[in-house]
């Protein structure tokens, strides 16, 4: 599956069937969890096969508009110390895992539980589960009703997220096309973000792409979102023959945080 197509079609499932995921697929997911965990420090995953316990415990406390997303299974992400770098890594790794699960033809949905009280978390996830702030609900989605309207969020234009040399300085579409990255930036706009804030900004300096994050009152959530989009960009660039990683160097940059750079 091309990553650009994945992003443009990416939709969270909020209504799951009761059907459980087959044992061999669950074992595969466990292997994926362990594989990603060994690649990065500062994060850990836990699989909750009995989704009813999680769904019941979080009713009225998490989900969308106060309605918990009920699924047959959940994966929890625990981020050590909530340090900025770990939050960034957490978003990157959780979406990497999410994408691999979607590739197994399994439906998913992110759920934020950072505002759930400590006692509730302990009752669901155990004494060591108080640091869990994000879940992936997964299973098989119910079929959409005929004529069910699609709900989409507005997206910033390429010109509003990508700049030349410094933030605020316009970049031409021709320049992006010459470097072969116009389609990448055009597609990356579809990445999900908390409250559709879209905190990412990019600056092209020759063959170097710099990533920035807009500051706000919810920087922790924006760092998670930045981790997600860094993962997407790496994967999309692979489709045009660029197989590299971001160089992360978190630092203050006025109204933004400088996240890191990527060489095309």
TrEMBL record:
Recall the GO molecular function terms of this protein's record.
oxidoreductase activity
Residue ranges of domain Putative nitroreductase TM1586 in the record: 6-234
Which interval of the chain is the signal sequence? none
For this protein, the record's InterPro entries field holds: Nitroreductase-like, TM1586_NiRdase
Query: Which sequence ranges are marked TM in the entry?
Result: none
Mind telling me which Pfam families this protein's record contains?
A: TM1586_NiRdase
Please give the name of this protein.
Answer: Nitroreductase
Native species: Peptoniphilus porci
